[in-house]
Specification:
By secondary structure, the protein is of the alpha+beta class. The protein has two domains: about 5-235, Rossmann fold (3-Layer(aba) Sandwich), CATH 3.40.50.300; about 240-365, OB fold (Dihydrolipoamide Acetyltransferase, E2P), CATH 2.40.50. The chain is about 25% helix and about 35% strand. Helix 3 (about 105-120) crosses helix 4. It is elongated. Bound molecules: adenosine-5'-triphosphate (ATP) and magnesium ion. Magnesium ion (MG) binds near residues 42 and 43.
Length: about 375
């Protein structure tokens, strides 16, 4: 029960391809997050599941049944929008009760269901207020309560937390995931916020220009991004990437970057050699870059380093209290960011440094396809 499947779904608005040949399975009782930059087709994908937009091509299934020609109200999904869409003239109770009014449910039963949903979401004391008398977070919960009472096969949520302030958003994030576990329903959750995606999704699907880049559990996406796009979209600060030609023997390759070379591990050398690429895109997460003294190679936090690495100049340092982001520039203008601890002195802006790379943690991509090269 409750699976949602898109099969080769395309949606065009005139010349705009909003969703491009998208195939996706949301498993029953799964919390799947659809994430991607503004305009990548997330809302359109969700609206096609809800029945608010018709696919130009392809098939939508809910719980195994093809629903392309099923009216939104008969699809047994509940959609929660960013702006909640509450009825301003109705009390909280009436808002939550609203979807039940069209069903043949007697008054007592309706009251019971509404009270239960209100208790679940901590809205018991607000039942007689109007939406205008509630905070943003409380309104959000009313919208959720209204979705819950329908006991749908699936919840479809389009950026439901984006109107909340940062603190409330974090709290509501946890509540939503907890609620989904308790109810055991399928959720398709749209956001452009990678932190929301990483923390809420049992799997996340990353869209780029209407097409699926990658789908998988968050840790896997972080460890093995399938493309340059995913590598740079997930992670903050984003993964550093630089392109360069490959030199050396198949078992001992080097990548030539502006100002220096990186020696690959024997395993990576074989992987890259196997791809046949003579030029590759190298990716390295900021936490795997060290900032070393330009002369003796000591790291910024005082540990002894080595004098190899790539010369760079420090553009600026963002001190976040718990860590520092050192934004550097290579000889050719490529930006590289290192994420380092707050121990030791801060590398001064405009100083010359050498960047060290944890070569066991490199990622490789084919510059022609931008897809990951894997061994
Ligand atoms: N009704 C419409 N008519 C024409 N173009 C549309 C329509 N709805 C969406 N689009 C276009 O389709 C593309 C995808 O839009 P969509 O709303 O799905 O993006 P999104 O990923 O939800 O973005 P955001 O994060 O900004 O909400 C965009 O280029 C948008 O301009
Ligand atoms: Mg949208």
């Amino acid at each position: 029960m409750g699976s949602v499947v898109l099969e080769e779904v395309t949606k065009r608005f005139g010349d705009t391809v909003a969703v491009d040949d998208l195939s996706l399975e949301v498993r029953d009782e799964e919390f799947l997050v659809l994430v991607g930059p503004s305009g990548c087709g997330k809302s359109t994908a969700l609206r096609m599941i809800a029945g608010l937009d018709d696919p130009t091509d392809g098939v939508v299934r809910i719980d195994g049944r093809i629903v392309n020609h099923v009216e939104p109200k008969d699809r047994d999904v509940a959609m929660v929008f960013q702006d909640y869409a509450l009825y301003p003239h109705m009390t909280v109770r009436r808002n939550v009760e609203f979807p039940l009014r069209t069903r043949s449910m007697d008054r007592d039963e309706r009251q019971r269901v509404v009270t239960e949903a209100a208790e679940t979401l901590g809205l018991g004391e607000f039942l007689d207020r109007k939406p205008a008398q509630l905070s943003g977070g409380q309104r959000q919960r009313v919208a959720l309560a209204r979705a819950i009472v329908r006991r749908p096969e699936a919840f479809l949520m389009d950026e439901p937390l984006s109107n909340l302030d940062a603190k409330l958003r974090v709290a509501t994030r946890t509540e939503l995931v907890e609620l989904q576990r308790r109810l055991g329903t399928t959720v398709v959750y749209v956001t452009h916020d990678q932190v929301e995606a990483m923390t809420m999704g049992s799997r996340i699907a990353i869209l780029n220009e209407g097409a699926l880049e990658q789908i998988g559990p968050p840790p896997e996406i972080y460890r093995r991004p399938a493309s340059v796009f995913v590598a740079r979209f997930i992670g903050s600060p984003p993964m550093n990437t630089a392109a360069g030609p490959v030199r050396g023997e198949p078992g001992a390759l080097r990548v030539v970057l502006p100002g220096g070379e990186i020696a690959l591990t024997p395993h990576d050398s074989r992987t890259v050699a196997g791809s046949g690429c003579s030029e590759i895109v190298v990716g390295i997460r900021p936490e795997h870059v060290t900032v070393n003294d330009a002369k003796d190679g000591a790291t910024a936090d005082g540990a002894a380093g080595d004098a190899s690495g790539i010369p760079a100049s420090v553009l600026s340092v963002e001190a976040l209290g718990y860590e520092r982001h050192v934004i550097c520039r290579l000889d050719d203008g490529t930006t590289m960011i290192a994420r380092i601890s707050t121990d030791g002195p801060e590398p001064p802006a405009h100083s010359a440094v050498r960047l060290g790379f944890d070569t066991a943690r490199l990622h490789f991509f084919d510059p022609a396809t931008t897809r990951r090269i894997d061994g």
